[in-house]
Structures are given as C-alpha cells and as structure tokens.
Design goal:
single chain; globular
Length: about 190
C-alpha cells in the first residue's frame, strides 16, 4: 500500500491514474481504426460501431465514468492528459466531416463534439441504465438480439441525421416554441 501512495501521492492521484489509463485505452483503440483511410460514411459507421461495442464490452469503464460524473468531473479536470488524448479524436471527426461535406454526403452544419456526444449517448445510455430500463420495459437490454437491433438503430439515427439535407432551425430559449424553416441543403 505504501508503494501505491509513494507513486501516486494519494488516493485521488491513484484514481486519476486509473481514469487516464482508461481514456488512453479507448483513444488508442480508436486510433487503430484508421478512420481517415475510410470513405466518410464508412468511417462514421465504423466509429459508431466501435463506440457501441467498446461500451458494451467495458462495463467497468461505464461505472468509472458514472462515478466521475457523480463527482462532477472533479478528478478529470485535474488531468491534462485526458484532454490531450481527446484532441486527435476530435480532429479525426472534423476530417471525416470535411471529407463528407466535400463529397456531398454530409450536411455542413455538424459540430464534431456535438456529434461525438450523440454517438456516445446512443452507445452508452442503454448500457449504463440496462437494469433499470430492463425492469421498466420487462425486456432484457443485455440480450444479444436486442443489442443487435439497438446497434442498427444507433447507426440509422446518426447516419440518417448526418446525411439529411439541412433544415435551418432557430431554437428559442427554453419554454418557448421552436421554429423551423427549410433551407437549401448545404452539402
């Protein structure tokens, strides 16, 4: 135990090291996908599939993220490494989006971080809430058939939105009505 504290300083230092290790693992695996070598739709589909699979196979990662969220990201803010590890992912998504827009495949109004948050949400929520949702809907959200349908649903939702013509939307403040006006596609 003394060696742990000597190396990491304290319990928080150890926890931050674990967080950094987990994020290093996922970001290294994402870089192995070589998304820039794929056509834009294939690259985005691969990223969605990878994220879906990763969260499904790393439920300890989900527990760690949930714990850190309960702590309001307090420990992650202390790690510059985690933020630095994320920069190549954002750059890769930006590159895929640029190539997709240039090829006339993707809409031109997509924020890469918003997109990644959506991919993560579609890949994460059913895992982090599996037991409560399974009880609520009387359906096993860990069943392989259900997961295959969920994966397909996530792919369809994200890729359909990403490839849809842009409709100009103006959102007003919370509690007010939204307005939507159709505009020319900006592909």
């Amino acid at each position: 135990m003394r060696l742990l504290y000597a190396y990491f300083g304290d319990k928080n230092g150890l926890y931050i090291a674990v967080l950094e290790d987990v994020y290093t693992e996922i970001r290294a695996a994402e870089q192995q996908l070589k998304l820039d070598d794929l056509e834009p739709i294939a690259a985005m589909s691969e990223l969605i599939d990878f994220t879906f699979t990763f969260f499904g196979q790393h439920q300890n990662y989900i527990a760690l993220i949930n714990t850190e969220n309960l702590q309001r990201g307090r420990n992650m803010r202390k790690s510059r490494k985690i933020a630095d590890l994320t920069l190549p992912l954002v750059a890769s998504i930006e590159s895929i989006l640029r190539r997709g827009v240039a090829a006339g495949l993707f809409r031109g109004d997509v924020d890469p971080i918003q997109l990644y948050v959506s991919i993560t949400a579609m890949s994460y929520f059913h895992v982090s809430n599996r037991y409560t949702l399974s009880a609520m809907f009387d359906k096993d959200l860990g069943d392989s058939d259900w997961l295959a349908l969920r994966r397909e649903h996530a792919q369809d939702m994200i890729l359909t939105w990403l490839t849809a013509p842009v409709g100009e939307r103006k959102y007003k403040s919370a509690g007010s009505k939204t307005t939507a006006r159709a505009s020319k596609p900006s592909r």
